[in-house]
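Reply to dn_fold:

You asked what the input looked like. This is it:
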Amino acid sequence: MAQTKAGNSVFDRLARSISREERESVLASIRQSLEQDLAPLVSEEIDTPPPLEEQIKSLGLWGKIKLFFLQIFTSETREAIITGWVLAGLRQQVQKIAGDALDARRGIFLGGFADSLEALQLTLHRATPYLDAAATRREELVFHLAADQFPVINGKLLKRTSEEYLSQQEEQNERTLKHDLTRYLEDRIADIPSKSSARIRRALSQADDLVRIGSFPFHSVLGSFSGSAETGDRQCPFDYITHSIERLASDVSSLSDPLEPLALENMVLLSCDQIALDTPEALQKELEAGLAILATVIRGLREFADHYPLVLLVRLIREDPWWNPPDAEYSGNDWLSIYRGKLEERIRRETLRVSLHRQVQDQVLLLEEVVDDRVTRIKGLPDGSDGLFLGHWHLALAGQTFASSLWRNTMSPLRQILNGADFYKSSNRAQFNDTFNEYEKIPDDLAGLEALVMPGGDWGQVLHSDEPLSRRREMADRVDREIEMIITSLQTTLEMMKNLLGGILYSRPGSSYDTIANYGQIGGRRNAELIDELKEIHSALQRLVGVIGEIGALEKRASENDMFLRPAL
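and this is what came back:
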């Protein structure tokens, strides 16, 4: 499982979704009821007046005479006069369509417009979970759409870039795996049908459009109205909210194509608890409820756009009869870069994870060689099988393995040094005494941790309970910190013991660690055997310190990349 320290990845959440076949059978029965709501929000294209020069040329004789005298008596240019004529017609047109909500001659919005905005705000508020999901979980939305439009290609890419698949490629190293997978990714992306790509782009763009409309600043716009709804005297000058109305006109006009059911369906699915949608019945219930809300939003937007010709209104407010919303840019054009980028990141992470896991496995084998025994794990430690992972699981394994085997075999020779060695340096004697005391306690420290994490232990009662996963992960983090503290102390003790034994056995002039005066006599008739045993212990501790250090470095690198390593047993 591609488990991160923050929780499951986008790929794991996607994998928990109900199968595509079951989704399709459910959606088929729902889409028919949506068809009438999928028409473009703007039903008719707004005509733009001809350019000024064309209008001047098209004037009849009396029109040209009228224009001539107006130029003389008003000192205005002919362009300004004709623009005024166009605006006057525009003012009448807008007043006729939405006269109950504005006064086009005085340039003010009335209470009816505020009432309509409030109704639209309430309608959009019901869709907040779906709009928020589309806004904040864009990567997942892209992968939902990809799974819909090219399921076979998408399935192959997810399988080929999974940890399970990569771990089977034993003959390849990290660099080779990454190179081969990147080439495979590009080959499969080239196979994506252009029709599927276009539909995803359109669906994603429309989801973005709905998100922008949902984020319209209703509160600030409504706050610009004076008066109150109770007295019915609310009004607001056009120029107070010009930019907001212009934005709303642009956002609504961008939905000029038929709406993609693909966008609406996946906005609903994205906001759902995928774990709870484990049956077609549960999926159908959730989809019907969510799509009904989104259909209500679309109807509300369409009614608002029909009642208020927003483009004409902006032209009137700006006194620019030729204003049009900016050409809609498909924000969904970024879908392929998101899709490719996320899979490239997955390749990097999973090849790294597999590489780190293999290196940890090698260190575990080396650990068994050092202690000349099988590894021993701490009972009760989470191993990922129930969703709980530890960042320092392998360090705990190394510590427990040492305490269960090598430690026991080293105590007798080391105790003879403790009781019979005549150190040249008093500082070395003090260091050995302190180090031996810490060395002797190592199994007790690890046994104490095991007692805590067993099912009946203080911490194990949480780790192995039915409490929420978040609570159990908090306890797992506490266990990780305890392991780090114990193993850090163990490493310090082993390093010091290794150095002290190195001084006794291989002392060099000027070294901080000196030999002992009775080197040739300690142990009596077993002196030669004791020296050999000490040499074996020194060698084993030296290798053990290296193994623990390497495991710690591998787990640190995994942590820096926000991942856990599976237990290597």
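The chain has a mean pLDDT of 87.
Hope that clears it up.
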